From TrEMBL:
Species of the source: Streptomyces daliensis
InterPro entries according to UniProt: Cyt_P450, Cyt_P450_sf
SUPFAM superfamilies linked to this entry: Cytochrome P450
Name listed for the protein in its UniProt record: Cytochrome P450
Pfam families linked to this entry: p450
GO molecular function, one term: oxidoreductase activity, acting on paired donors, with incorporation or reduction of molecular oxygen
Length: 93
């Protein structure tokens, strides 16, 4: 008998319509750091879109380098690629 895979842990505090967007906008670094102990991959919601935070450095390398050609990146990733560099604000002095 095989055991079904455990579901991915989900970040707490999602709101019904916006998911985790408000948390991430208020304090993105703290929101991401708070998920470190939840597991190697943590699911969260950006509105209706499901997104994943990868906490394990080896998994990040595998996703971004080893298997990058065979993975679907999704709409949010594609939109980020189209953002011209002039739209990105530099950090405050």
């Amino acid at each position: 008998m095989t055991r079904a895979a455990d579901p991915l842990p989900t970040a707490p505090g999602a709101l019904p319509l916006t998911g985790h967007v408000l948390q991430l906008r208020r304090n993105p670094l703290a929101s991401v750091q708070a998920q470190r102990d939840r597991g190697d991959v943590v699911a969260f919601r950006l509105g209706r879109q499901r997104a994943y935070l990868v906490n394990d450095p080896e998994l990040v390398h595998q996703i971004l380098v080893t298997q990058a050609h065979g993975l679907t990146k999704g709409v949010l990733f594609q939109q980020g690629r189209r953002t011209p560099p002039s739209c990105v604000r530099p950090p405050p002095p």
